[in-house]
Amino acid sequence: MKIKLLTASVAITLLAAGCNNGKGKNYYGPGSTAAPLPTAGGTGTTGGGATPGGGGGGTVGQFAAGPALNAPRYRHTATVMNDGRVLVTGGTDGQGILTESEVYDPQAGAWDMVANLAPTQNDAFMIDATGQFATARQLHQAVALQDGRVLVCGGFGAERLDAQGQPVPEMLASAYVFNPQTNAFSAVAVMNENRGWFTMTLTGNANVMAAGGLNQDLSASLTTADVYDPIADTWTSVPANAEHTWGSAVLAGNSALIVAGANVAMGQQGLALNGFPSPRVQALDAQNGTFVAAPDNPGGERFNMAAEVDSSGNAFFAGGEGLDAAGSAIEIKDTTFFYDAGNQAWTAGPTLNTPRTSAAVAELGTTSDMLITGGIDAAGVPTPECEVYGILSNAMLGVVNMATERTEHRAVTLQNNAVMVIGGQNANGDPLDTSEIHTR
Question: pLDDT by residue (tens digit) across 31-45?
Fold first, then answer.
Protein backbone atom coordinates (compact mmCIF):
# COMPACT_ATOMS: atom_id res chain seq x y z
CA MET A 1 0.00 0.00 0.00
CA LYS A 2 1.29 3.47 -0.87
CA ILE A 3 -1.11 6.38 -0.83
CA LYS A 4 0.09 9.92 -1.31
CA LEU A 5 -1.18 12.27 1.40
CA LEU A 6 -2.29 15.66 0.17
CA THR A 7 -4.23 17.13 3.10
CA ALA A 8 -3.25 20.41 4.70
CA SER A 9 -1.94 18.57 7.73
CA VAL A 10 1.17 17.22 5.98
CA ALA A 11 2.81 20.39 4.67
CA ILE A 12 6.06 21.41 6.36
CA THR A 13 7.23 24.99 6.54
CA LEU A 14 11.01 25.40 6.63
CA LEU A 15 12.48 27.57 9.30
CA ALA A 16 13.96 31.01 9.41
CA ALA A 17 17.47 31.15 10.84
CA GLY A 18 18.02 32.19 14.41
CA CYS A 19 20.77 34.58 15.36
CA ASN A 20 23.67 34.28 17.71
CA ASN A 21 22.31 36.27 20.63
CA GLY A 22 19.73 33.57 21.33
CA LYS A 23 16.88 35.52 19.78
CA GLY A 24 15.14 34.18 16.73
CA LYS A 25 12.25 35.84 14.95
CA ASN A 26 10.31 38.29 17.06
CA TYR A 27 6.60 38.92 16.64
CA TYR A 28 4.55 41.55 18.37
CA GLY A 29 0.88 41.13 17.61
CA PRO A 30 -2.21 42.83 18.98
CA GLY A 31 -1.96 43.86 22.60
CA SER A 32 -3.09 41.29 25.15
CA THR A 33 -6.22 42.18 27.05
CA ALA A 34 -8.17 40.41 29.73
CA ALA A 35 -10.69 37.92 28.42
CA PRO A 36 -14.21 39.38 28.59
CA LEU A 37 -16.79 37.63 30.70
CA PRO A 38 -18.67 34.96 28.73
CA THR A 39 -21.84 36.18 27.10
CA ALA A 40 -24.91 34.22 26.17
CA GLY A 41 -24.66 32.63 22.76
CA GLY A 42 -23.66 29.57 20.84
CA THR A 43 -25.90 26.72 19.89
CA GLY A 44 -26.54 23.49 21.67
CA THR A 45 -28.89 21.14 23.38
CA THR A 46 -29.47 20.21 26.98
CA GLY A 47 -27.41 17.29 28.25
CA GLY A 48 -27.67 15.02 31.27
CA GLY A 49 -26.99 15.57 34.95
CA ALA A 50 -24.36 17.78 36.50
CA THR A 51 -22.51 15.64 39.04
CA PRO A 52 -18.78 16.52 39.06
CA GLY A 53 -16.75 13.60 37.81
CA GLY A 54 -19.88 11.81 36.73
CA GLY A 55 -20.61 13.44 33.40
CA GLY A 56 -23.26 15.90 32.40
CA GLY A 57 -23.21 19.59 32.92
CA GLY A 58 -26.36 20.96 31.31
CA THR A 59 -25.92 22.80 28.02
CA VAL A 60 -23.03 22.59 25.62
CA GLY A 61 -21.97 26.07 26.75
CA GLN A 62 -20.63 29.01 24.80
CA PHE A 63 -17.43 30.62 23.57
CA ALA A 64 -16.12 34.10 24.34
CA ALA A 65 -13.10 35.87 22.91
CA GLY A 66 -9.89 35.25 24.82
CA PRO A 67 -6.71 37.33 24.93
CA ALA A 68 -4.53 37.46 21.84
CA LEU A 69 -1.20 35.68 21.64
CA ASN A 70 1.86 37.79 20.95
CA ALA A 71 2.65 35.67 17.87
CA PRO A 72 0.30 33.86 15.47
CA ARG A 73 1.14 30.18 15.49
CA TYR A 74 0.02 26.67 14.65
CA ARG A 75 1.67 23.25 15.18
CA HIS A 76 2.65 24.55 18.61
CA THR A 77 2.20 22.97 22.04
CA ALA A 78 0.08 24.23 24.94
CA THR A 79 0.57 22.87 28.46
CA VAL A 80 -1.25 23.78 31.67
CA MET A 81 1.24 24.09 34.52
CA ASN A 82 0.69 23.41 38.22
CA ASP A 83 0.36 27.13 38.95
CA GLY A 84 -2.54 27.38 36.48
CA ARG A 85 -0.63 29.21 33.78
CA VAL A 86 -0.42 27.88 30.21
CA LEU A 87 2.92 27.48 28.42
CA VAL A 88 2.89 27.67 24.60
CA THR A 89 6.06 26.68 22.73
CA GLY A 90 7.16 26.73 19.11
CA GLY A 91 4.98 26.25 16.08
CA THR A 92 5.04 28.21 12.84
CA ASP A 93 3.51 31.43 11.59
CA GLY A 94 3.53 30.09 8.03
CA GLN A 95 6.70 32.02 7.20
CA GLY A 96 9.16 30.41 9.57
CA ILE A 97 9.37 28.23 12.66
CA LEU A 98 9.17 30.09 15.95
CA THR A 99 11.87 30.08 18.60
CA GLU A 100 9.84 32.02 21.15
CA SER A 101 7.48 30.80 23.85
CA GLU A 102 4.77 32.59 25.77
CA VAL A 103 2.74 32.10 28.92
CA TYR A 104 -0.93 32.77 29.63
CA ASP A 105 -1.60 34.06 33.15
CA PRO A 106 -5.28 33.52 34.03
CA GLN A 107 -5.03 35.99 36.91
CA ALA A 108 -3.92 38.76 34.57
CA GLY A 109 -6.04 37.43 31.70
CA ALA A 110 -3.16 37.99 29.26
CA TRP A 111 -0.26 36.37 27.42
CA ASP A 112 3.34 37.40 28.02
CA MET A 113 6.51 36.39 26.23
CA VAL A 114 8.84 34.16 28.24
CA ALA A 115 11.56 36.62 27.23
CA ASN A 116 9.83 39.16 29.50
CA LEU A 117 9.68 36.72 32.41
CA ALA A 118 12.97 34.81 32.34
CA PRO A 119 15.92 35.94 34.50
CA THR A 120 18.25 36.26 31.48
CA GLN A 121 17.85 36.48 27.71
CA ASN A 122 19.18 32.99 27.05
CA ASP A 123 16.99 31.46 29.76
CA ALA A 124 13.94 32.39 27.67
CA PHE A 125 14.96 30.15 24.77
CA MET A 126 15.85 26.56 24.01
CA ILE A 127 19.50 27.16 23.12
CA ASP A 128 21.40 24.70 20.90
CA ALA A 129 24.11 22.47 22.35
CA THR A 130 26.89 24.86 21.28
CA GLY A 131 25.13 27.85 22.82
CA GLN A 132 25.09 29.70 19.50
CA PHE A 133 21.41 30.16 18.68
CA ALA A 134 17.85 29.52 19.81
CA THR A 135 16.37 26.33 18.43
CA ALA A 136 13.11 26.58 16.52
CA ARG A 137 10.63 23.72 16.45
CA GLN A 138 7.19 22.65 15.27
CA LEU A 139 5.49 19.22 15.24
CA HIS A 140 7.08 18.65 18.65
CA GLN A 141 5.57 17.54 21.96
CA ALA A 142 5.38 18.85 25.51
CA VAL A 143 4.13 17.29 28.73
CA ALA A 144 3.88 18.49 32.33
CA LEU A 145 6.11 16.42 34.63
CA GLN A 146 4.99 15.46 38.12
CA ASP A 147 7.55 17.82 39.64
CA GLY A 148 5.88 20.78 37.92
CA ARG A 149 8.34 21.32 35.10
CA VAL A 150 7.36 21.00 31.44
CA LEU A 151 9.33 18.69 29.14
CA VAL A 152 9.58 19.89 25.51
CA CYS A 153 11.27 17.68 22.94
CA GLY A 154 11.68 16.66 19.31
CA GLY A 155 9.85 18.20 16.39
CA PHE A 156 10.92 19.66 13.08
CA GLY A 157 13.32 22.59 13.20
CA ALA A 158 17.02 23.22 13.65
CA GLU A 159 19.48 22.58 16.45
CA ARG A 160 22.78 22.60 14.51
CA LEU A 161 24.54 24.53 11.75
CA ASP A 162 26.07 23.27 8.51
CA ALA A 163 29.59 24.07 7.28
CA GLN A 164 28.35 27.40 5.93
CA GLY A 165 26.87 28.35 9.29
CA GLN A 166 23.26 27.84 8.21
CA PRO A 167 20.65 26.03 10.35
CA VAL A 168 20.02 22.43 9.25
CA PRO A 169 16.28 21.67 8.92
CA GLU A 170 15.50 18.20 10.27
CA MET A 171 13.57 16.25 12.86
CA LEU A 172 15.15 16.93 16.24
CA ALA A 173 16.41 14.87 19.17
CA SER A 174 16.96 17.64 21.71
CA ALA A 175 14.89 18.08 24.85
CA TYR A 176 14.42 20.91 27.33
CA VAL A 177 12.52 21.58 30.52
CA PHE A 178 10.73 24.78 31.45
CA ASN A 179 10.71 25.58 35.16
CA PRO A 180 7.62 27.64 36.06
CA GLN A 181 9.24 28.80 39.30
CA THR A 182 12.08 30.51 37.43
CA ASN A 183 10.39 30.99 34.03
CA ALA A 184 13.52 29.53 32.43
CA PHE A 185 14.36 26.79 29.94
CA SER A 186 17.28 24.42 30.43
CA ALA A 187 18.61 21.57 28.32
CA VAL A 188 18.22 17.96 29.43
CA ALA A 189 19.42 14.70 27.91
CA VAL A 190 18.70 14.25 24.19
CA MET A 191 16.48 11.46 22.90
CA ASN A 192 18.09 8.37 21.39
CA GLU A 193 16.47 9.14 18.03
CA ASN A 194 15.43 12.29 16.25
CA ARG A 195 11.66 12.29 15.91
CA GLY A 196 8.80 14.55 14.90
CA TRP A 197 5.05 14.05 14.39
CA PHE A 198 5.34 11.60 17.27
CA THR A 199 3.11 11.11 20.30
CA MET A 200 3.98 11.49 23.97
CA THR A 201 2.49 10.88 27.40
CA LEU A 202 3.39 10.35 31.03
CA THR A 203 3.75 6.74 32.13
CA GLY A 204 2.39 5.10 35.26
CA ASN A 205 5.70 5.57 37.11
CA ALA A 206 6.00 9.31 36.28
CA ASN A 207 8.39 8.80 33.40
CA VAL A 208 7.59 10.03 29.87
CA MET A 209 7.04 7.92 26.76
CA ALA A 210 7.76 9.45 23.33
CA ALA A 211 6.66 7.00 20.65
CA GLY A 212 6.79 6.71 16.87
CA GLY A 213 7.10 9.67 14.54
CA LEU A 214 9.26 10.38 11.52
CA ASN A 215 13.04 10.02 11.65
CA GLN A 216 15.71 12.67 11.19
CA ASP A 217 15.40 13.16 7.42
CA LEU A 218 11.68 12.19 7.24
CA SER A 219 12.54 9.09 5.20
CA ALA A 220 10.93 6.55 7.53
CA SER A 221 8.51 6.14 10.42
CA LEU A 222 10.18 4.97 13.61
CA THR A 223 9.36 1.64 15.26
CA THR A 224 10.78 2.64 18.63
CA ALA A 225 9.89 4.69 21.67
CA ASP A 226 12.11 6.72 23.97
CA VAL A 227 11.28 6.66 27.69
CA TYR A 228 12.53 9.58 29.78
CA ASP A 229 13.37 9.32 33.47
CA PRO A 230 13.23 12.91 34.81
CA ILE A 231 15.07 12.02 38.01
CA ALA A 232 18.02 10.32 36.31
CA ASP A 233 17.77 12.61 33.25
CA THR A 234 18.13 9.66 30.89
CA TRP A 235 16.29 8.34 27.83
CA THR A 236 15.91 4.59 27.26
CA SER A 237 15.11 3.22 23.81
CA VAL A 238 12.29 0.66 23.72
CA PRO A 239 11.34 -1.33 20.59
CA ALA A 240 7.71 -0.66 19.69
CA ASN A 241 7.72 -3.07 16.72
CA ALA A 242 5.23 -0.95 14.77
CA GLU A 243 5.00 2.50 13.20
CA HIS A 244 2.74 4.93 15.08
CA THR A 245 3.36 8.25 13.32
CA TRP A 246 0.33 10.53 13.80
CA GLY A 247 -0.95 8.13 16.47
CA SER A 248 -2.18 8.96 19.96
CA ALA A 249 -0.56 8.26 23.32
CA VAL A 250 -2.53 8.39 26.55
CA LEU A 251 -2.02 7.48 30.21
CA ALA A 252 -5.25 5.61 30.92
CA GLY A 253 -5.23 4.48 34.53
CA ASN A 254 -1.67 3.27 35.02
CA SER A 255 -1.24 2.14 31.42
CA ALA A 256 0.63 4.22 28.88
CA LEU A 257 -0.99 3.30 25.56
CA ILE A 258 -0.02 3.98 21.95
CA VAL A 259 -3.17 3.93 19.84
CA ALA A 260 -3.22 3.56 16.05
CA GLY A 261 -1.25 5.88 13.73
CA ALA A 262 0.34 5.11 10.40
CA ASN A 263 3.55 4.20 8.59
CA VAL A 264 4.37 7.29 6.54
CA ALA A 265 7.55 8.55 4.91
CA MET A 266 8.67 11.38 2.66
CA GLY A 267 9.05 10.38 -0.98
CA GLN A 268 9.66 12.24 -4.22
CA GLN A 269 6.02 13.39 -4.35
CA GLY A 270 5.63 14.23 -0.68
CA LEU A 271 4.52 12.20 2.28
CA ALA A 272 3.15 8.76 1.39
CA LEU A 273 1.15 6.32 3.47
CA ASN A 274 2.83 2.90 3.43
CA GLY A 275 0.62 1.00 5.86
CA PHE A 276 -0.74 0.87 9.39
CA PRO A 277 0.75 -0.41 12.66
CA SER A 278 0.27 -3.98 13.79
CA PRO A 279 -0.64 -4.32 16.58
CA ARG A 280 -2.70 -1.12 16.47
CA VAL A 281 -2.67 -0.67 20.24
CA GLN A 282 0.29 -1.30 22.53
CA ALA A 283 0.81 -0.75 26.24
CA LEU A 284 4.12 0.07 27.89
CA ASP A 285 5.04 -2.27 30.72
CA ALA A 286 6.77 0.35 32.85
CA GLN A 287 8.44 -2.19 35.15
CA ASN A 288 9.94 -4.33 32.42
CA GLY A 289 10.46 -1.52 29.91
CA THR A 290 8.76 -3.38 27.08
CA PHE A 291 5.60 -3.03 25.01
CA VAL A 292 2.82 -5.58 25.15
CA ALA A 293 -0.23 -5.92 22.94
CA ALA A 294 -3.35 -4.29 24.36
CA PRO A 295 -7.04 -4.71 23.48
CA ASP A 296 -7.68 -3.49 19.95
CA ASN A 297 -9.64 -0.28 19.48
CA PRO A 298 -13.01 -0.37 17.70
CA GLY A 299 -11.97 2.56 15.52
CA GLY A 300 -9.71 0.37 13.43
CA GLU A 301 -6.96 1.89 11.32
CA ARG A 302 -6.87 5.55 12.19
CA PHE A 303 -4.49 8.52 12.46
CA ASN A 304 -4.68 12.22 13.37
CA MET A 305 -7.39 11.54 15.95
CA ALA A 306 -8.38 13.94 18.71
CA ALA A 307 -7.61 12.19 22.01
CA GLU A 308 -7.90 13.13 25.68
CA VAL A 309 -7.83 11.44 29.09
CA ASP A 310 -10.57 12.49 31.51
CA SER A 311 -10.23 13.17 35.23
CA SER A 312 -11.27 9.57 35.97
CA GLY A 313 -8.36 8.17 33.96
CA ASN A 314 -10.36 6.98 30.96
CA ALA A 315 -9.60 8.01 27.38
CA PHE A 316 -11.75 9.38 24.55
CA PHE A 317 -10.89 9.43 20.84
CA ALA A 318 -12.70 11.24 18.02
CA GLY A 319 -12.47 11.51 14.25
CA GLY A 320 -9.20 11.21 12.41
CA GLU A 321 -8.38 9.72 9.04
CA GLY A 322 -8.32 6.18 7.68
CA LEU A 323 -9.01 4.08 4.63
CA ASP A 324 -12.44 4.17 3.03
CA ALA A 325 -14.55 1.02 2.61
CA ALA A 326 -12.83 0.19 -0.66
CA GLY A 327 -9.39 0.50 0.94
CA SER A 328 -8.20 2.71 -1.90
CA ALA A 329 -8.36 6.24 -0.50
CA ILE A 330 -8.13 8.14 2.75
CA GLU A 331 -11.33 9.52 4.22
CA ILE A 332 -12.04 11.73 7.21
CA LYS A 333 -13.89 9.84 9.94
CA ASP A 334 -16.99 10.76 11.97
CA THR A 335 -16.79 8.01 14.59
CA THR A 336 -15.62 8.06 18.22
CA PHE A 337 -14.56 5.48 20.80
CA PHE A 338 -13.85 5.33 24.52
CA TYR A 339 -11.34 3.34 26.59
CA ASP A 340 -12.37 2.21 30.09
CA ALA A 341 -9.07 2.00 31.95
CA GLY A 342 -10.49 0.05 34.91
CA ASN A 343 -11.88 -2.73 32.75
CA GLN A 344 -9.26 -2.38 30.01
CA ALA A 345 -12.04 -2.41 27.46
CA TRP A 346 -13.15 -0.30 24.51
CA THR A 347 -16.62 1.03 23.76
CA ALA A 348 -17.75 2.39 20.42
CA GLY A 349 -18.95 5.96 20.87
CA PRO A 350 -21.52 8.09 19.06
CA THR A 351 -21.17 9.50 15.57
CA LEU A 352 -19.92 13.05 15.25
CA ASN A 353 -22.17 15.63 13.66
CA THR A 354 -19.23 16.57 11.41
CA PRO A 355 -16.40 14.25 10.32
CA ARG A 356 -13.12 15.84 11.35
CA THR A 357 -9.37 15.31 11.50
CA SER A 358 -6.59 17.30 13.20
CA ALA A 359 -9.12 18.48 15.78
CA ALA A 360 -8.33 19.14 19.45
CA VAL A 361 -10.29 17.87 22.45
CA ALA A 362 -10.37 18.87 26.12
CA GLU A 363 -12.37 17.80 29.15
CA LEU A 364 -15.09 20.16 30.38
CA GLY A 365 -13.92 20.70 33.93
CA THR A 366 -13.92 17.36 35.79
CA THR A 367 -17.21 16.12 34.36
CA SER A 368 -15.58 13.59 31.99
CA ASP A 369 -17.59 15.28 29.21
CA MET A 370 -15.45 16.23 26.23
CA LEU A 371 -15.34 19.28 23.96
CA ILE A 372 -14.17 18.38 20.44
CA THR A 373 -12.97 21.55 18.72
CA GLY A 374 -12.43 22.47 15.09
CA GLY A 375 -10.28 20.42 12.75
CA ILE A 376 -10.60 19.73 9.02
CA ASP A 377 -14.02 18.56 7.88
CA ALA A 378 -15.02 16.15 5.10
CA ALA A 379 -14.76 18.96 2.54
CA GLY A 380 -11.11 19.39 3.46
CA VAL A 381 -11.44 22.80 5.12
CA PRO A 382 -11.12 23.93 8.75
CA THR A 383 -14.38 24.17 10.67
CA PRO A 384 -15.50 26.41 13.56
CA GLU A 385 -17.91 23.73 14.75
CA CYS A 386 -17.34 22.09 18.12
CA GLU A 387 -19.24 19.19 19.67
CA VAL A 388 -19.79 18.03 23.25
CA TYR A 389 -19.62 14.34 24.15
CA GLY A 390 -21.56 13.25 27.24
CA ILE A 391 -20.00 10.39 29.18
CA LEU A 392 -23.15 9.33 31.05
CA SER A 393 -25.27 8.92 27.95
CA ASN A 394 -22.40 7.98 25.61
CA ALA A 395 -23.94 10.47 23.18
CA MET A 396 -23.17 13.76 21.53
CA LEU A 397 -24.97 16.47 23.52
CA GLY A 398 -24.93 19.13 20.83
CA VAL A 399 -22.98 21.64 18.78
CA VAL A 400 -21.45 25.01 19.65
CA ASN A 401 -19.42 27.17 17.26
CA MET A 402 -16.21 29.08 17.78
CA ALA A 403 -15.96 32.56 16.28
CA THR A 404 -13.16 31.32 13.98
CA GLU A 405 -12.59 28.07 12.12
CA ARG A 406 -9.38 26.36 13.31
CA THR A 407 -7.12 23.42 12.62
CA GLU A 408 -3.71 22.51 14.06
CA HIS A 409 -4.72 24.50 17.13
CA ARG A 410 -4.57 23.43 20.78
CA ALA A 411 -7.26 23.09 23.45
CA VAL A 412 -6.55 22.90 27.19
CA THR A 413 -8.67 22.72 30.34
CA LEU A 414 -7.90 25.63 32.66
CA GLN A 415 -8.00 25.29 36.44
CA ASN A 416 -11.30 27.19 36.56
CA ASN A 417 -12.81 24.38 34.39
CA ALA A 418 -13.04 26.56 31.28
CA VAL A 419 -11.50 25.32 28.02
CA MET A 420 -9.10 27.59 26.15
CA VAL A 421 -8.62 27.09 22.39
CA ILE A 422 -5.30 28.53 21.21
CA GLY A 423 -4.00 29.54 17.78
CA GLY A 424 -4.23 27.35 14.68
CA GLN A 425 -4.98 28.04 11.02
CA ASN A 426 -8.18 29.39 9.50
CA ALA A 427 -9.84 28.40 6.22
CA ASN A 428 -7.50 30.68 4.26
CA GLY A 429 -4.45 29.00 5.75
CA ASP A 430 -3.67 32.09 7.82
CA PRO A 431 -2.01 31.49 11.20
CA LEU A 432 -4.07 32.74 14.13
CA ASP A 433 -2.97 34.76 17.14
CA THR A 434 -6.39 34.55 18.75
CA SER A 435 -7.74 32.40 21.57
CA GLU A 436 -11.29 31.53 22.57
CA ILE A 437 -12.57 30.49 25.98
CA HIS A 438 -15.43 28.01 26.41
CA THR A 439 -17.58 27.87 29.55
CA ARG A 440 -20.84 26.21 30.51
Answer: 222 222 222 333 333
Query: Which of helix, strand or coil describes residue 381?
Result: coil
Which contacts qualify for 222-225: CB closer than 8 Å, 24 or more apart?
222/193, 222/195, 222/198, 224/192, 224/193, 225/258, 225/284, 225/291
Residue 232: how many other CB atoms lie within 10 Å: 10
- Euclidean distance between the first and the last CA atom of the chain, given in angstroms as a whole number: 45
Q: What is the rounded distance in angstroms from the CA atom of residue 242 to the CA atom of residue 222?
A: 8
Residue type, 200: M
pLDDT (tens digit per residue) in 157-208: 999 989 998 889 999 999 999 999 999 999 999 999 999 999 999 999 999 9
What is the layout of strands, in order, in the sheet containing 270-275? 3-4, 270-275, 263-267
Is residue 8 within 8 Å of 374, Cβ to Cβ? no
Question: In the chain, where are the structural domains located?
Answer: 35-66+302-440
pTM above the 0.85 mark?
A: yes
Q: In sequence order, which residues have a C-beta less than 8 Å from that of residue 51 and are 6 or more positions away?
A: none
CA atoms within 13 A on the CB side of 257: 32
Beta bridge partners of 202: 208
Which CATH number is correct for 35-66+302-440, 2.120.10.80, 3.30.930.10, 3.30.110.70, 1.10.443.10?
Answer: 2.120.10.80
Chain Cα centroid distance, residue 434? 17
Strands 315-318 and 281-285: unpaired
- Secondary structure E strands in 248-406: 248-252, 255-259, 263-267, 270-275, 281-285, 290-293, 306-309, 315-318, 321-323, 330-332, 336-340, 345-348, 360-363, 370-373, 383-390, 395-406
Side chain identity, residue 102: E
Spatial contact of 225 and 210, defined as CB atoms under 8 Å apart: yes
CA–CA separation, 52 vs 163, rounded Å? 58
Give the C-alpha distances (Å, rounded to integers) separating 427 from 43, 65, 241, 402. Answer: 21, 19, 38, 13
